[in-house]
């Protein structure tokens, strides 16, 4: 475990170890998107539990169509910035660093206080059903296809939210380009049927990822860590594959690097899943080959495999989701050689709120 627990520099920030809390939506902000003290306690718990880096849940970026869930936090006004500042201060006081994840829901839209009409690359809804633990919708709405003004609004929202995140004291920005949200929808041939310069070829489909990365970089300046989370699959279609395969994915990573990304955060069902249409590489494996960009990796990392994965990807941060939910002090437990629990999804029922989790913990306390 030694190197995993050693302090390191990631970009220009000092981290106490290589563990990151994976971004996890908890729909626990105030109805107007303001982060609250329940969330501050929640994020502080993971910092105290040893996670060197905390990555926040997906946070919406404009007052148009970016919000996807009721009680999702935003970062678009002064009250929201202040709410985040409290959380940032609490995480810093516990000795960890914190990035915010900026997210535009696009077609994966279950609730939005500013509009009833989702926007997406084309008039195509996600596969499957909406997520029951985030809302009560039974079917996806069909989004309107974004025109070039809508696209510009979305890009500007990411850029302004990045400025707001810097003002709130965050240590870096993660752009959400994964899991079927807007940027990922543009990359996807399921969602994107456009015939303008944002659709068709891979170069066109990745244009939004590149434009947003470039705009965020320009907005925050050179020395502020900026990265993007990327996946092939989505929350309701985890087996989706890019038709352009591993070489196509490499092109995306190179393009976001050239647009100003310092790191890419790959996420797949499992870090070691070989899931390109061609060859036997992994998402993280391809990203690791690209020079000049740092790496955060995610997917089924636990106490049994973390050391091997860390050895496989020197210098990469390991982002942990389910094991962290089950053990907010996962890193401390690992250090102390203590027992580590498996996730019990009942803690996220009937909704994935922090208060439901706390009630479940109380009820199930030994
Ligand atoms: C309750 C819950 C909420 C999640 N919310 C987000 C999110 O807001 N942004 C994101 O990029 N991924 C989100 N994810 C995905 C996780 O970050 C992670 O990729 C996934 O759980 C797989 O990692 P794991 O095997 O370590 O759990 C969420 C996962 C869970 C379980």
TrEMBL record:
Domain of life: Bacteria
Gene Ontology MF: a single term: FMN binding
Domain NADH:flavin oxidoreductase/NADH oxidase N-terminal: 4-338
Pfam families named among the record's database cross-references: Oxidored_FMN
Official protein name in the record: NADH:flavin oxidoreductase
Residues annotated as signal peptide: none
Gene3D superfamilies: Aldolase class I
Lineage, top ranks: Bacteria, Pseudomonadati, Pseudomonadota, Gammaproteobacteria, Pseudomonadales
GO cellular component, one term: cytosol
């Amino acid at each position: 475990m030694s190197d995993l627990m050693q302090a390191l520099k990631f970009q220009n920030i000092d981290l106490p170890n290589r563990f990151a809390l994976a971004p996890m939506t908890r729909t626990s902000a105030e109805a107007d998107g303001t982060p609250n003290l329940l969330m501050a306690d929640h994020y502080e718990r993971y910092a105290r539990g040893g996670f060197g880096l905390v990555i926040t849940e997906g946070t919406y970026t404009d007052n148009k169509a970016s919000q996807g869930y009721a009680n999702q936090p935003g970062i678009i006004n002064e009250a929201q910035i202040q709410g985040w500042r409290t959380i940032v201060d609490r995480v810093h006081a516990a000795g960890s660093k914190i990035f915010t994840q900026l997210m535009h829901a696009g077609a994966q839209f279950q609730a939005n206080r500013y509009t009833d009409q989702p926007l997406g690359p084309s008039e195509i809804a996600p596969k499957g059903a909406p997520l029951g633990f985030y809302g009560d919708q039974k079917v996806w709405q069909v989004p309107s296809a974004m025109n070039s003004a809508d696209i510009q609004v979305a890009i500007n929202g990411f850029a302004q939210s990045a400025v707001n995140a810097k003002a709130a004291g965050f240590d870096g920005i993660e752009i959400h380009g994964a899991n079927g949200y807007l940027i990922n929808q543009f990359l996807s041939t399921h969602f994107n049927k456009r015939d303008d310069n944002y659709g068709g070829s891979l170069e066109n489909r990745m244009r939004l990822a590149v434009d947003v990365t470039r705009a965020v970089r320009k907005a925050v300046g050179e020395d502020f860590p900026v990265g993007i989370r990327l996946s092939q699959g989505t929350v309701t279609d985890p087996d989706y594959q890019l038709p352009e395969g591993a070489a196509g994915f490499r092109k995306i990573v190179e393009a976001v690097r050239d647009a100003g990304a310092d790191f890419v955060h790959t996420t797949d069902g499992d870090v070691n899943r070989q899931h390109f249409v061609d060859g036997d590489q992994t998402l993280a494996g391809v990203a690791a080959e690209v020079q000049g960009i740092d790496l955060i990796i995610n997917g089924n990392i636990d106490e049994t495999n973390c050391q091997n994965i860390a050895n496989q990807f020197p210098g990469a941060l390991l982002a942990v989701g389910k094991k962290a939910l089950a053990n907010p002090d996962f890193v401390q437990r690992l250090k102390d050689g203590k027992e580590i629990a498996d996730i019990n999804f009942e803690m996220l029922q009937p909704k994935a709120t922090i208060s439901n989790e706390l009630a479940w913990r109380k009820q199930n306390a030994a």
